[in-house]
Every structure is written in C-alpha cells, then in structure tokens.
Amino acid sequence: MVVCENKDDEHFLAPRSQCVKIPVSNGLGEYRIRDQKCRKIIFKLKKDGRLVDEVIITR
Hints:
Number of helices: 0
Strand content: 35-45%
C-alpha cells in the first residue's frame, strides 16, 4: 500500500517524495499521520505495480 499526504507525489524522485510504502500482512496495514496539518490523505492499494483501489480522505 502507498500513502501520500496532501498530494500524490508517488512518482517524484527522492527527496521530493512524501509518499511512503506500508507493508500489508493478512489484509492489514497501519499508517500514522506524519503532518497533523495535512488536509488530504491518499491510500493506494497496489498489486504487481498496478493500482487496484484508491481512497482519498479529506480532513
């Protein structure tokens, strides 16, 4: 799973990228918000490098 705060910069090269990969085990993964002021969190579920599902949470 890939998680981005505020904007989807998954494809930017480091150090610009703010997206993180979260390991998923038995269908579960855990993410803690890094920037408490962020207005949008994007969760991307991928399989074999392809987007399977995406959820955008606006705070």
